[in-house]
Structure formats: structure tokens, C-alpha cells
Amino acid sequence: MSGIDISKKVLLITLIIFGVLAASFTLTHNMQLSNFLDLEELDTLNNVERVQNAISTQQGYLNYIAQDWACWNDTYSFIEDGNETFIRKNIQNHTLAKLKINVMLFVNNSGSLVYAKSVNIDTSQETLVPEELLRLVEDGTLLTKGENGNISGFVLLDGKPMFISCHSILTTNYTGPVRGTVIFGRYFDDNLLESFKETTRSSLLMYSVDDNLPPDFQAKLNNFSHSPQHTIVEPLNDSRIAGYFELPDISGKPALVIRADFPRELYLYGERTLNNMYLFLLLIGLITMVGVKFALDKLFISRLIGIDNFVTQVRSEKDLSRRLSLKDNDELYRLSREINGMLNEIDLAQQELKAQEREKKVLLDSLNELAIFVSPERNIIWANKVALEFMKIDLQKAVGLCLKNTPDINSPLSDYLQLEQVFTTGNKKSEEFTAKDGKVWFVQAIPVTEEGGKIIGVLEMCRDITERKAAETLLQEKQIAEAANRTKSEFLANVSHELRTPLNSIIGFSDLLYEQVYGELNEKQLKSVGNISKSGKHLLNLINGILDLSKVEAGKMELNYTKFELAGKFNILRNLLSPIADRKNIQVEIDIDSSLSTICADEARFVQIMYNLVDNAIKFSFENGLVKIGARKKGDMVEITVMDTGIGIKPEDQSKLFKPFSQVDSFLSKQFQGTGLGLSLVKQIVKLHGGYIWFKSNPGEGSTFAFAIPIKGNNNSEHGTIGLNSKTQGKR
């Protein structure tokens, strides 16, 4: 009967193991399939980004051409005198066709159209200027304001989308006063869409929001109204997947919805591979379980049954002369041998018990705790060495002594624990108390019973825990301080959010007043409104910095890793800061290692790092200076440097860098505007990327700031370290 029972148990265990393996395989299969879906979505987003980059490149080209024509002495003169020579020499049909421009408009400061031309790019034939475009000129929508004025984006002309770029007319040296606006436009027609298809090797469909949209495009347009500037990815069918994205017009309203679809090769291949692997693993698992069951029955279970029967018979007959037969040199053989040896050594066990009693006494004597064994009459039966030293008495004098009459130990072990309750209830009792001398004790009374359950005594233990309690108090104080710091960070984050909403409103309305949307203002009013906008933006930057710093301190800042081109980001950054650099005639150079193309990082946070470093370099550079941006590959890291030829940092001020709200000195704080948060955030963001930052600087010779982050990204930001060189690290 025993053999049947154990065999059934082995079979049940085998089936359970197989079930667990099957469930694990199924779960792994589903998880891997989900991973392939995620990879497919990521691949689709990357492909859609190539399409978006191609469209951005077209817009950038149009912006470049518009700026080139607008900042030209001949154009500057033409707006004033309208000379025909300029038109004959420069504005021919074939010129516009070669430049891939459909419409060219010149408008003076009063909003009057000086000259307009529209051509067919394919045939170079002149066409009519769109009436709707002229209306946008008349109502001032396409007219720029100020020397740095430019407008770029899309407009819908009777449902036809057009790239548009408007730039203020200046001299070749980019100086004013502004004499008007140059407006260039190119239709986003089927030919241009085909060129994007060839460039990105994708299938593209485009609809204007004014068109009768197909159901899937209409549904995505509704989603874009809740989440603008967001790419929506979803499968079209079993073989193709699509990415939808929206292009707004120059006013920010939805203009175009574009779908880019691609074959689902990655997902389909992964699904087939996983299905084959899943079936293969199930088959291997089934075969393995059957083989294991057969082997266990044959090699072990039958022998275990024999050992069980032998032990049962010896125990019932109390015949210690019997021995197990031995076979096969394995674990069961050794078990049988040990059972035989155990029978031989039973007699020695009783003698060893006495030796063990002595060992227990030695062990108790080695304890640092006070240990006393007390009889039901409260008399001492035994005490360890530490207790005897504490009582200042030897064991012979202590045995038989009533605990209440014991010197120096009555209070810890007798009065406080109330031993009568322990002897009555038979329950262990433990307490902590503070003695008159300030020491904290942990005392414990453990009842000792004989086989019948009768209490024959109580083992009392007493341990000095003064140091441990002090450590616990320090730990609690540390936790309270950390909680207070987290509360502070959360409060700053909440207050920053509450302040940003009214500030955005102040900045928006002041910008509308400055642009004279609600009516003309005199020079003094314009200056005051401009100061409101400038101060609001400065305060908003400070609040955003506080919010980001609070997120880092509260551990709530998350990184969104994406792949992007390094050179493209540097060029965009240079263009973004070019107005600031041009005012000081500072040249910005970019030098990127030829082995570097793309990196994986949080794109927005990377731009935030670079903007702070380059803006600081320009801000603290001398007139006609030079700012160099460099990127080099260092192992699996990318090392980026920003060098300027500016004022540098004094050695006594360098210790203030990288500290929030800290600037190098009060004079520079007034001369160069700043919040003191920029480099502090740069340091924290670099650390979150798993990188490090350093700098070197000499007064009057300029500074070099550098940081390094993993090229392929690092999702475990806890591994990031902050590197220091011998010069210090910091924030201007």
C-alpha cells in the first residue's frame, strides 16, 4: 500500500511540474509576443519620425530661402522704390520654379502688397496668386513684427495645404529698421507627397481637415484634439501597421492628418518563431516528465519503500540487531549506511546527552546577557557567568538564594516582570524598562516544563539595550527629516504648478498687447508691456526650474528615452540661440566626431542640458567671441563639451557652482540675468542619464563645461555618478 501511495504522489508532483512549466511557457510566450508588439510600435514611431523629419526639412528649406531673400540689400531697396530691374533680374518664373517656390509676396510696413508672383513649379508658368492668401496678408495674419519676426508653418487655401514662411525685411547685415515682410509659399501637393514617399520609403496618405475624411482619419483627428503633437500607432490589418500624426496651421489649429503605413514583418516573424518554440518546449517538457516519472519509480521509489518497511519493523520490534542490506553506491546507499550506523551508536547517544548538558552550560556562560534559572519558590537554581559578575557573587553562594534577596538584580528580574504571573499562566513574558541610572534593559522570562507539562522553573534573561535604543532614536529622527524634505519638494512642486497657470496668462496677454492685437500703443506703453512679458517669462523660467528640481528631489522625474541625430539637435540649438549670439557678434562652431550619428537619451532633457550650457557660454563671452560645441565618442559614452572665450570663473567662486539658487558673485548676478538653477538641473539630469559632468575655467580666458552620458541610453539612473575634476564643479 505504501508503494502505491508514494507512486501516486510522484505522479501528482510530475503533473504539477508539467502544469507549471506549461503555464510558464504560455506566460513567457504571451510576454514575448507583447514585447514584439512594443518593438513593432517603436519601429513604427521611428519610421513616422523619418516622415516628420522630411516635412520639417522642407519647412526649414523654405525658411532658409525666405530669410535669404528678406535679409538682402536689393530687397530692402526694392520695397522702397519698387524698381523693375530687381524684378527682371531676380524674380523670373524659372527662378521660382528652380527654388521650388509657388508663391512669392513682398509687403511693405503699411501692409500694402508691393509685388506678388505665383508660378507652377512643374511648368514654370505663371498662375494667379490665391485670393485666400491675399486675404491673410490684408488682415495681418502673415505680417511679421520686429527685426527677429518670422512666421512659418502651414495654411489651408481652399482646402489646399501650403508651406508658408514669412520673414521681416532687413539689410544684408540683418539690421533695420524693418521695411516689410517677405512671404514664400509652396503647395503641399501630390508631387511633394510622392517625394516624401521616395525619401522615407513609406506609403503615405494625407487629408486636409477641410476634406471629407475617411472614418479612420476622422477618429484620429478627434483623438488629436485631446492630445496634439502625438503620433497614434495601430495595425491596419494582419500585414500592415500605420502611424497617424497631425500637422497644425500657423495658428495652431489642425490642418493636415497624415498616415504612414508599413509592413508588419517584425511582428509576424516574431509570432511564428514564438509559436514554434512554444510547441517545441511543450513537447520536450512532456517527454521529460514521462521519463522522469519512469526513472523515479524504477531507481528510487521501490528502494525507499524497502527502507520505510525496515525502519517500521525495527521500531515495532525494538530489535536493534537488524541491519539494512546495502546496494548501489548512491544517496540511498549512504542513507542505508547511516541508518545502520545510527543503530550502532544509540548507546553512545545517552552518554553524549550528558556531555551536551555541560556544553549548554558553557554556551550560556559565554552569553553577554544575564541568565538565571529560578525555581517555583523563586530560588536561584543556576546563573551564568555574566549574571554572577553582575550580582558580585559566586555560583555556590547564589544557588538556593531567593531572588528577592539577591543584591543588584532584584529590580530588573523580579519586581518588574512579576514572576508569579509566569508560573501561573505558563506564558513567556518580556518587557523593556529604563533603570534609575538611565540604562535601558530588555528582560524576558521563559517558563521551562518537564515532559508532563509541569513548570519546573523559569529561565530569566536580561540584556542591556541602551546603545540599540539610542540608534533607533537616531534612525527615527533621520526618517522624520527625510519625510520633511520630501514634503518640502512636493510643496514646491504644487506651488510651482499653481503659479505657472496665472503666469502663462500674464505672459500671453502681455504678448498680445505688445503685438498691438487689441489696438495701437505708444512707445512708453509698449516698453511697459514688454517689461511685463520679459519679467513674466523670467519668473516662469525660475518656477519651471524649481519644479524640475523638486521633481528630481522627490524622485518623480522620469526619462523618456528616444533615438535622435546629434548633429540635427546641435544645429537646431544654434539656430535657436543665434539671435542672442548675433547681438554680441559671437560665432558658434560645431565639431562632431565622424563616428557619432545618433544617441539614445531623453530628447527634451538633452536639449535642456545643451540650451543651459550654450546659453551660459554666450552670456558670459566677450563681444566678437567664439563658442565651440564638441562631441566625441569615449568607449560606450558620448562626451560633449561647450567651450567659450569669456570672463571665466574665479577660483574662490568655483565652489558655488552646481548649487541651486547660487551664482558666482553679486556683480555678475546684476550684469547677467539668471536664476542660479540651470547648471544644478543640468547636473541632476546628467546623473539621471547615468552620466557625469565636469568643467575647467581660468579667469579672463573662458570656461569649458563637459558632460558624458551613455550613447545607447541607461534606464537605471541610479547607476549614474557625478564626476569631479581637480578644478571643482558647478553653476554660474
Can you characterise this structure?
- With 732 residues, the protein is of the alpha+beta class.
- It has five domains: 56-194, PAS domain (Beta-Lactamase), CATH 3.30.450; 329-366, no CATH class; 367-464, PAS domain (Beta-Lactamase); 470-553, Helix Hairpins (Orthogonal Bundle), CATH 1.10.287.130; 561-719, Heat Shock Protein 90 (2-Layer Sandwich), CATH 3.30.565.
- The protein is 50% helix and 21% strand.
- Helix 15 runs parallel beside helix 19 and helix 17 (603-619) packs antiparallel against helix 19.
- The radius of gyration is 42 Å and the shape is elongated.
Mean pLDDT: 79
Largest sheet: 6 strands, antiparallel
Overall structural domain count: 5
Poorly predicted runs of 5 or more residues: 666-670, 717-732
Helix- and strand-based class? alpha+beta
Write out the strand line-up for the largest beta sheet, numbering strands in chain order.
3-2-1-6-5-4
Task: Annotate the secondary structure layout.
Layout lengths: L1 H69 L2 H9 L2 H7 L2 H6 L4 E6 L4 E7 L6 E2 L3 H8 L11 E8 L2 E9 L11 E8 L2 H11 L2 E6 L6 H12 L5 E4 L4 E9 L5 E10 L1 H53 L13 H35 L4 E5 L5 E4 L1 H7 L3 H4 L11 H6 L3 H7 L3 E6 L5 E10 L5 E10 L1 H49 L8 H31 L7 E5 H18 L3 E6 L5 E5 H17 L6 E9 L2 E8 L21 H6 L6 H11 L3 E7 L3 E9 L22
Parallel strand pairs: 17-19
Antiparallel strand pairs: 1-2, 1-6, 2-3, 4-5, 5-6, 7-10, 8-9, 9-10, 11-12, 11-15, 13-14, 14-15, 16-18, 19-20, 20-22, 21-22
Helix pairs in contact: 1-6, 1-8, 14-15, 15-19, 16-17, 17-19
